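User: Could you write out the 3D structure of this protein bound to thiamine diphosphate? I've included everything you need below.
Assistant: Certainly. Input first, then the structure.
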Amino acid sequence: MAKGTVARTRSGSGVAAADPEMVQLLTPEGERVDHPDYSVDFSDEEYRNLYRDLVVVRRLDAESTALQRQGELGIWASLLGQEAAQVGSGRALRPQDMAFPTYREHGVLYCRGIDPIMPLGLFRGVDQGGWDPNEFKFNMYTIVIGAQTLHATGYAMGINMDGKVGSDDGEAVIAYFGDGATSSSARLASRSITARPASASRASGSTATTCSRPMRSPVRRSTMPATARARPSLRLTPTGWVRTRRRTTRRATASPARWTSGS
Ligand SMILES: Cc1ncc(C[n+]2csc(CCOP(=O)(O)OP(=O)(O)O)c2C)c(N)n1
């Protein structure tokens, strides 16, 4: 801990004054700093347990990477270098809190008590992962970049409507995503929906998303399915997208009424 150094806090740009401040407990140089509300005082055993978690998830990751190299897995999304961010946030969650991972949060999965062998089925292509998200409060891995930020936002809106916030038995929601996802349309839409993007960054990006006000606009141009924008010959019907006669004239697609009617 840096002596006499106080943790930095700042409001995110464009965030209303009532919004929570970002709390930063590590300097960019990796130096621990003190904070009156967030001091950490672990016992030796707790430190040993956290360190054990780091070693275990790195070992599991190394083994899974080896399985991928041997052709046993089609692909493996390694957590190498993100162990502390995952174990730290995973162990900070209470049982009732809900986590929305990408495809790389094996350390958080481990902290939620899920058998760490379960993601191997997904990466081998034989199942979808297989754990019960409700039982473990850990959603299924999400391959579509940024999509889980919308799922987390909707979930946060739900617990907000249920009044499960601001008390000891209140629930928190955390969504993980990489820096590439920050420019995905899903992430931008979830950000525009949420009132309080109280957030923290992991080594390669994660954000805790909370929500306390409704969506501003139910349909935004940027959230239209890419297929609808790129393929005006597709039409949305109650049973899904159907292919229609390809247009020969250029039509405006800015109006939702036009691109959904297919006329
Ligand atoms: C909507 C969508 N577009 C493209 C991809 C292909 N894809 C898989 S991983 C990846 C990179 C994601 O980068 P980042 O969000 O930084 O996460 P990282 O994997 O680096 O943790 C992309 C583009 C995808 N899965 N989903």
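The chain has three domains: 1-40, 42-207, 227-261.
User: Perfect, thank you.
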